[in-house]
Amino acid sequence: MTATLFIDGAWCSATAGGTRQIHCPADGTFVAEVDEAGPEDTIAAIRAARTSFDAGVWAQSPASARGDFLLKVAAGLRERKEEFARAEALDTGKRMVEARLDMDDIAACFDYFGKLAGQHTGRIVDAGDPNINSRIEVEPIGVCALITPWNYPLLQAAWKIAPALAAGCSFVLKPAELTPHTAILMIKLLDDLGLPAGVANLVLGAGATAGGPLSTHEDVDLVSFTGGLETGRLLAANAAGTVKKIALELGGKNPNIVFADADFDAALDNALNAAFVHSGQVCSAGTRLILEESIAERFTEEFVRRAEGIRLGGPFDDTAETGTLISAAHRDKVHAYVEAGIAEGARLRTGGTFGEGDLAGGYYYLPTVLDRVVRGMSVVRDEAFGPVVTIETFTTEDEAIAIANDTIYGLAGAVWSSEAGRGERIAKRLRHGTIWINDFHPYLPQAEWGGFKQSGFGRELGPTGLAEYQEMKHVYHNLTPAVTGWFPEH
Ligand SMILES: NC(=O)c1ccc[n+]([C@@H]2O[C@H](COP(=O)([O-])OP(=O)(O)OC[C@H]3O[C@@H](n4cnc5c(N)ncnc54)[C@H](O)[C@@H]3O)[C@@H](O)[C@H]2O)c1
Ligand SMILES: C[N+](C)(C)CC=O
Predict the structure, then answer these.
(1) Selected catalytic residue, list 36, 88, 177, 249
(2) Taking all residues of the chain, what is their mean pLDDT, rounded to a whole number?
(3) Torsion angles phi and psi, residue 226, rounded to 5
(4) Do 22 and 34 touch, CB atoms closer than 8 A?
(5) C-alpha of residue 434 to centroid of ligand 2, in Å
(6) Residue 272 burial (CB < 10 Å; 0-12/13-18/19+)?
(7) What does the pLDDT look like over 96-107, one tens digit per residue?
(8) What confidence tens digit (pLDDT) does each residue in 309-334 have?
(9) Ligand 1 and 212: CB distance under 6 A
(10) Which residue(s) pair with 312 in the sheet?
(11) pLDDT-derived band of residue 2, with 50, 70 and 90 as boundaries?
(12) At residue 295, what are phi and psi to the nearest 5 degrees?
């Protein structure tokens, strides 16, 4: 597969001829070879986006037309769902059933922003003078750099592409280097549906090289980034050089608090899902299980027993319940956190090893549970981004809240209790961007998503997810211009 970069309405190869081979992490099978962009390709893509934006080919089109376009994207995705899901599954190794669910969520996201486009057009301001016409106009922010991770490749891209297009922006998309295929398919779909040249541009390749100019180039107005904390810090520092707006969707170390009065079976089942879906490679994964002391032993025993029963397998294994990690390097990193935790005194209840036998050809890591942990341990503190759960206990509400908030992150968390008042009370005091009460993981296109603290800033989805891609302009129109006399003629 060549000519996989899309710049100014044309598919092309990397100027320097670089390529990258993509392999399925579930079994190492070769998926395809794609182009590997260098900074010069990315600069060309930024220039194309700038030219199209300044020409107004999309930015000046009626918002309702942009909305209609997004609804067509949603329909196109639904028609080609299987093709998209398969591409996602091969790149990430995730199960087809999960990849299909991702495609449903992506189509819903395009529907949502398609309907929202044009609804937030500004407002009339009462200037207190009938001869002054004052209004706030909402305009697209300009050229957007959209940088996305490998765990939910198209979903995270869609949360940016849909509002960017709804707002009237032009963009350069840089997906994670390991998972480019659904981005290619998406850009093809946009092109097939007639998006003007230069509005959507695609560069593939490594962060520092292909991605480098995206946070430094003066023609980029907004960087919208989803990925790790270290990269986010770097991009924020880079973006400061040209004072460009930046939105950061970073990692999490997400608490899942279970009170003794919770529905035990529901809390247990959801705690497994919270931690082990997509092998824990989820920003909002419930990796810190925080149990009320009186149920801790029974809950932990059941949790461990059920974790040991989880079947691992590849994208097309219908019996699999979760999958592989993305790469050998990532699996090593996850394992290092587990080993560090054990060395620091944590007790390994299950897991802590690579998949063997049928799983040996992929980067599988067994669902892992550690208890007897303390808060300073790296496995409790840092985002391992794998199927690793630590168990802590509490005796009072205040203690549960203190444990749950004791993290530099603030992405998501959950509380389980049959007392509605307690759920609400705790939700109010948790410093995380999404709180689930008696649930875990749902997100809605119409509800803002994002982090407190070092999980980032800015919001995706919901009306604010569109506003991120807009500028506000105050237009003050004096209907009766007159001499002010402030500086009289001498
Ligand atoms: N908050 C959220 O909604 C959310 C959602 C999904 C994933 N995440 C986070 O993403 C992380 C996992 O993803 P990852 O390992 O791909 O993250 P990463 O930070 O390594 O990479 C993310 C993207 O940034 C690019 N990149 C890296 N360096 C760059 C640079 N100097 N300039 C431009 N681009 C650069 C990468 O190539 C990739 O496309 C986890 O921390 C996870 O929690 C957060
Ligand atoms: C944002 N979400 C939950 C879809 C994926 C996070 O990794």
Answers:
(1) 249
(2) 98
(3) -125, 125
(4) yes
(5) 11
(6) buried
(7) 999 999 999 999
(8) 999 999 999 999 999 999 999 999 99
(9) yes
(10) 322
(11) confident
(12) -110, 0
In this structure, which long-range contacts are made by residues 206-212, counting pairs with CB atoms below 8 Å and at least 24 apart in sequence?
A: 206/36, 206/177, 207/147, 207/174, 207/177, 207/231, 209/37, 209/38, 209/39, 210/36, 210/37, 210/38, 210/39, 210/41, 210/42, 210/174, 210/177, 211/42, 211/147, 211/174, 212/39, 212/42
> Which ligand approaches the C-alpha of residue 92 most closely?
1
Q: What is the DSSP letter of 367?
A: -
Q: Has residue 1 got a pLDDT over 80?
A: no
Q: Does residue 404 contact residue 413 with C-beta atoms inside 8 Å? A: yes
Active site residue 137: no
Rounded Cα distance between 58 and 53, Å, is: 7
Mean pLDDT for 227-240 is 98
What single DSSP character describes residue 250? -
Output the six-digit token pair for 468: 């991120």
- Residue 383 Cα to ligand 2 midpoint, Å, equals 14
- Ligand 2: lining residues by beta carbon, under 6 Å: 151-152, 155, 282-284, 443
Nearest to 276 by CA among 256, 296, 298: 256
Quick one: pLDDT at residue 268? 98
Tell me the backbone φ, ψ of residue 35, rounded to 5 degrees.
-75, 150
Share of the chain above pLDDT 70, in %: 100
SS3 127: coil
How is residue 196 annotated by DSSP? P
Q: How does 51-76 read in b/e, with b if 16+ C-beta sit within 10 Å?
A: bbbeeebbbeeebeebbebbbbbbeb
State the Cα–Cα distance between residues 87 and 160, nearest whole angstrom: 20
